[in-house]
């Protein structure tokens, strides 16, 4: 008798061949009971998928892959810690994969799915402007965590999304500085061509200025070099040092789009003999622990990082386990007043 | 004809059954050519290991697992970033696993090896006082990175070790403070029962005092509560605030065994109206980026974190690929003078 094949298993179980294939390949899109039944039949009938070499190479660990753009951003360190903790609680492996700024994260994810078969994916950081067609190639559930995206994608129900409203939170901070009496607010932004949260925060800043009767001045918009990791103390320090040295623009407040940038800017101001907040008010964004411990304490927008990270994993597992559909969750940031800003 | 079995494969290849098993199970302890030959024979003769269900569950990803004790230590964030980058370059998966302070990292590793079959393991942080017998159960190559250990283990050639000399570097910092004229140097140490780098740094501090003719004063040795994550700004802040409030001890310098602790201490001093370094000199350990950007810049021991992390991965892959045996590498720290210390 010829050995049993995939069609026999499908016939025995009363399902289609593709369903058996999904069971064997641990595709998430299969009813767990059906899968159990199929695996049982495979075992009982001693069916062996025909490419044994491929089979030996199969990776079938229960794993969640986290793809990170901007791995040096300390804000992500805390997210990653919570991800790891939550994923470990679920007894899944935590696979961490860095994506370079120039790489396409969906291509990286497609490769990873093919090779490693994670049960779910978290995209952390970066920007999503991929077409719907491209995203539909992603055959495992995924959540976009603190990622900017194009409006057209926001309505899709084929994935989840967790973030603060970067535009609104940035508006809030800029409006706060305006209400303190600042009219010349310099922004340390991301790159000029940024399409991610950097752009959203810049737009929130501009809108708040306009609503406070201040015309945005392009000279006060400082951008990072393209291709450079910009959410860093180094960027804040270097650009603020240059500005203070050149003395081309006047300003009374600096709004940095991340706390790391703000701390670098504080250092540059202090090194030049300036005082914070007497000479310059400085504000950041993120709410890192160091914002509280810095000297002076930094005025910032605190993102609820633990809750956002926990929510990311909860949503992902709800989808994996079929408990709920995809969700969009927008968290509220909190404006924390530090000693680094004052009214003028 | 009966189907081919593992003995047949062994006979065909002229190797033992256990070697075939090692090839199938991706055991690291096999010559790559032998393994290739065996896998080829398996494919040609359509041999299927007899437990197909187990086979379907096999995890055979090429992965390196990194087990971390003290995941909230920012020093490790940078190590992890470099690990991820280097492991990705080798086209291996990066599996991150946190180990709680109360957990036995070797037990966690044994479980991980059984379930996930990583090709190599990095232990990051914590302390190794495991018996040689226990370590010998670890069947995949491993490297201890920035980990304290008992002397008896140091001579073992069954694993690699990468670190600075915590005793010597701590001695260097304390000696520096003594040479600045400080005689009352308070140390913010780890827990009292610490057996890891915390103990080594404390011992280096005591030895330097003695060599400078200063009797170590137990009142100046401040310990963290047991079970608490102590390499944190929070610990530095809370303990320094308490000390300044109680006013029980006199001191002119504070040596914190990590930069995070030092920054917390600086914040407490500043909040109490103290000036650094006028009222108190403060020194740290690690050489985090923030030590440079803090206000004032922090005197610290800079560990060559990138090199240490790169070396960890290089050594691990050399062992995995049979290019070299296990190595012990001790890196040199650098005393970086900041604005936070002065001579008295």
TrEMBL record, chains A, B:
Residues 4-58 form the HTH lacI-type domain. It comes from the Bacteria. Keywords: DNA-binding, Transcription, Transcription regulation. GO terms for molecular function: DNA-binding transcription factor activity; transcription cis-regulatory region binding. It comes from Hungatella effluvii. InterPro entries: HTH_LacI, LacI/GalR-like_sensor, Lambda_DNA-bd_dom_sf, Peripla_BP_I. This is LacI family transcriptional regulator. The keyword DNA-binding applies.
């Amino acid at each position: 008798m010829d050995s049993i094949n995939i069609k026999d298993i499908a016939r025995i179980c009363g399902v289609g061949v593709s369903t058996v294939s999904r069971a064997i390949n641990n595709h998430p899109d299969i009813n767990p009971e059906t899968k159990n039944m199929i695996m049982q039949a495979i075992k009982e009938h001693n069916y062996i998928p025909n490419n044994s070499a491929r089979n030996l190479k199969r990776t079938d660990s229960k794993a969640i892959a986290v793809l990170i753009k901007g791995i040096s951003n300390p804000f992500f360190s805390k997210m990653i810690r919570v991800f790891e903790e939550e994923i470990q609680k679920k007894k899944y492996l935590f696979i961490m994969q860095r994506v370079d700024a120039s790489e396409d994260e969906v291509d990286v994810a497609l490769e990873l799915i093919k090779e490693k078969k994670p049960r779910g994916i978290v995209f952390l950081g970066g920007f999503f402007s991929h077409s719907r067609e491209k995203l539909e190639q992603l055959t495992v559930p995924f959540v976009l965590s603190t990622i900017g995206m194009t409006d057209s994608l926001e309505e899709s129900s084929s994935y989840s999304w967790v973030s603060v409203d970067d535009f609104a939170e940035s508006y809030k901070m800029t409006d706060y500085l305006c209400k303190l009496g600042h009219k010349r607010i310099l922004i340390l932004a991301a790159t000029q061509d940024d399409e991610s949260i950097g752009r959203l925060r810049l737009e929130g800043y501009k809108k708040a200025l306009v609503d406070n009767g201040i015309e945005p001045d392009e000279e006060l918009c400082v951008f990072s070099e393209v291709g450079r990791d910009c959410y860093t103390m180094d960027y804040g320090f270097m650009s603020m040092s240059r500005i203070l040295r050149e003395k081309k623009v006047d300003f009374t407040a600096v709004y940095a789009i991340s706390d790391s940038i703000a701390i670098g800017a504080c250092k540059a101001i202090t090194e030049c003999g300036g005082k914070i907040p007497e000479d310059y008010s400085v504000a950041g964004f993120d709410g890192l622990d160091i914002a509280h411990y810095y000297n002076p304490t930094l005025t910032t927008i605190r993102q609820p990082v633990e809750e956002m990270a926990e929510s990311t994993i909860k949503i992902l597992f709800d989808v994996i386990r079929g408990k709920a559909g995809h969700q969009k969750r927008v968290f509220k940031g909190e404006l924390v007043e530090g000693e680094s800003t004052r009214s003028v």
